[in-house]
Amino acid sequence: MALVRPVIEDFAAEMFGGFARRDQRGKGELYLRGLLLEGKRKSMQPMAERLGVDHQQLQQFVTTSTWDHTEVRRRLAVWAAEFIDPDALAIDDTGFPKDGTSSPGVARMYCGALGKRGNCQIGVSVHAVTDWASAAVDWRLFLPESWDERKAAEEHAAAQIARKRARCAIPDDQRHREKWRLALDMIDETLGWGLSRRLVVADAAYGDATAFRQGLTDRGLTYALAVSASTSVHPADTAPVPPAWSGTGRPPTKTTYPDKPVTAKTLVTAAGRAAGRFVLWRHGSRTSAGNPAAAMRSRFVALRVHPANRNIPRAADGSLPECWLLAEWPTGQPEPTDYWLSTLPADIRLRGLVKVAKIRWRIEHDYRELKDGLGMDHFEGRSWLGWHRHVTLASVAQAICTQLRRTPKAPAQD
């Protein structure tokens, strides 16, 4: 504890240095200590009991005190950019199971934590990641259409939604937006904080959204995004041609590709296993017995393609942009199991392409640590502001854990 406490104090001073009042900075540090202490539940009352304080102090700090959680996230992102020096920004979302219906954004949706549809909230997050460390630097609470009265078909339903929004103090400008749009909002926010542009990685829930991929390109960002096997592509060696002209009337000017697009699965399976190479992209965790870490190795096929979609902007000659199609084809599998599209350079080595495509594993580490160890999903409040503040503070607590893991231990005293 003698080693840990100074780190917590210094980190709290850095993250909460923008608070106008000393008591707010003190309560912020207190809340972090509560999240970091041993204990199964990290909701207000259990934390207050372990800290030996009135739980209303913690409640007031999170729900009504006047401090800016966005500024805390900005400082956290700046810390992550310097301390972690991320290889990529990873996008994902996670579920928070709920028993009642009063928490902001709660609805019956698919929840990964439950492995099925259930009553839950969904939080979308942006993580600064490398193979050795990661940090959740931004969050948005997803609002389903059932929490947006502007989407209601009937006046009575709209009035009910407006009342439950008022109970949760949801700001009027916070409306239903697709998760990929929330992700782009957060990327814009991190860029506004002055962070340098990084590669973006995400699963197929985001990669399958053509508008999300285009949004990244429009922002000058490269990506390696998982996509579905049914994603439509043209082989890279195909080019658009002018449409047939009968010789009468005005000649058509719109060029098209001579063949219909095929699915990613069709193209990769046509290339065959022989087109793939085995790649070792990282070593797994060591076993509890201290045995050497297992090698993460599989076969991958990488092809140059033109993604096909009517909403993808074309060049002057009608051609679609070219990118990588990466597929994993493990030994013993009759067909590829996973696919990615990536705008990384055409001359990148296969191992480098695979490594960044696979770097999303860090998100699962983050969610596990944030939820199991730091109580991110233990928040019992029912306010929009309280939820965003709690997940921000849990993310700061996780960053402290990351820094402690990299802090050299003091030498043993004789």
UniProtKB/TrEMBL annotation:
Ranges in coiled-coil conformation: none
Region (Disordered): 235-260
Domain Transposase IS701-like DDE span(s) in chain numbering: 14-287
Transmembrane segments annotated in the record for this chain: none
Entries under Pfam families matching the protein: DDE_5
PANTHER family per UniProt: TRANSPOSASE
Record's protein name: SRSO17 transposase
Native source organism of the sequence: Lentzea xinjiangensis
